[in-house]
Amino acid sequence: MKRFLTILLLVLMPMTALAVQPDEVLDDPALETRARELSKGLRCLVCRNENIDDSNADLARDLRLLVRERLVAGDTDEEVIDFVTERYGEYVLLQPRTGGTNMILWLAGPAMLLLAFGIGFAYVRKRGQGQEEVLSTDEEARLKEILDR
Question: Residue 43 pairs with which residues in a beta bridge?
């Protein structure tokens, strides 16, 4: 059993290293490092929650090549990200931006939580302030009679 697990581990271990092909790697180590960092923040549109640096999908390869192409052309990191998001939408970002229309999504959760606490507090407070019932004179006399016994 141990031998089987060892062989399985050795077979599956290089699978993640196969994502970036040798022909994709840039000659300039600084540009390659930038490309790797940018690729880790971009989502593979085929694999969903995997970055394009780790994905073996053809679309991820195309995106990696696009990122490297833009870097070689002289774009800054922000320009590359803007180009890719303009082309594929904000879904391609693994860390969505917190500005613009996304601000509604970022603030909706905490706002709903505060609203729920407010409604709960108001309900409990109103429930605790129940109206006191006043006893009639007959009921007061009967109560006094019971307590005196």
Answer: 51
Residue with tokens 């490297």: 68
Coil/strand/helix, residue 54:
coil
Instruction: Give the residue extent of every domain in the chain.
Output: 2-92, 102-148
Q: Which residues pair with 51 in a beta bridge?
A: 43
Higher-confidence residue of 130 and 107: namely 107
Element (H, E) at 35: helix 29-40
Please tell me the CATH superfamily of domain 2-92, with its number. Answer: Cytochrome C biogenesis protein (1.10.8.640)
pLDDT band at 100 (very low <50, low <70, confident <90, very high): confident
Instruction: Report yes or no: 104 and 112 within 8 Å, Cβ to Cβ.
Output: no
Is the pLDDT assigned to residue 115 strictly greater than 90? Answer: yes
Beta strand ranges found along 1-143 (DSSP E): none
pLDDT, position 6: 67
